Amino acid sequence: MKQIVLSLCLALLLAACGPSAEEKATMTATAMTATAASWTRTPTPTSTPTLTPTPTPTQTPTPTRTPTPTRTATPTASATPTRDPNRYYASDDSFSIMIPEGWETVDLSLEHLGLVGPTTGGFTPNIIFFTENSTAPMAMYSALFQDNMAKLFTDLTTISEEFLTTSSGLEYMRWEVEYTSFGDIRGHQVIYFFEHGDMKLVIAYSRSPLVGAENDAVIEEAIDTLRFGS
């Protein structure tokens, strides 16, 4: 979860003005790699038992019958479902969502591709996706997530917190916040929490607190289209 929390901060770095979109993506990917390495535990090596070979008993060969050749059934080609070109699909097909109009995918070297929108006032709004396996109920998972965020970013301000349901019946939590990231960048972020069995899906939409609010309604419409599976 810590890795996800820091990745949300890096999403604000991506949104900030300055480098090009490609340079921001490289910065984010580099920082993510360093973060993951610093929090990955080194597994303790385990000894491999040595197996003693068991002698194979000598068997008297038995006559073999010549098998009668059988016809091989010709496989029937199955139809491949057509993907919606306007829809974002996770790399493992665990979930999908409609792409907001004017947005495009970008490779940030994270678990899944991200989405970036048109730059406004020097800021590039973006959406990033993370999944994590956890047996904790969604309410508990999101509460722990919020606690970690509050500890990491002491100036974090909650704007709203709601438990909602998509038009298809998926329940989720919506948490809207503002805080200052490690790059001294003040950002506005909406974090969505979904679950599908033990899989928790965290979606973070980041923009400037000063510009880009006109995109908010479009993002909410996209979130409402979320579905699990391909």
Please name the defining characteristics of this protein:
alpha+beta; Protein Transport Mog1p, Chain A; about 230 residues; 4 helices
Topology of helices and strands:
Elements: H1 2-15, H2 21-39, E1 87-89, E2 95-98, E3 104-106, E4 114-116, E5 126-133, H3 138-152, E6 157-165, E7 171-180, E8 186-196, E9 199-207, H4 216-223, E10 227-228
Antiparallel strand pairs: 1-2, 2-10, 3-4, 4-5, 5-9, 6-7, 7-8, 8-9
Helix pairs in contact: 1-2
Describe this structure in words.
The chain is an alpha+beta fold and 230 residues long. It has a single domain (2-30, 84-228), classed as Protein Transport Mog1p, Chain A (3-Layer(aba) Sandwich), CATH 3.40.1000. It has helices at residues 2-15, 21-39, 138-152, 216-223, and strands at 87-89, 95-98, 104-106, 114-116, 126-133, 157-165, 171-180, 186-196, 199-207, 227-228. The strands form two sheets. Strands 3-4-5-9-8-7-6 form a seven-stranded antiparallel β-sheet, with helices on one face. A three-stranded antiparallel β-sheet has the order 1-2-10, with no helix packed on it. Strand 6 (157-165) and strand 7 form a beta hairpin. It is globular. It starts with a helix and ends with a strand.
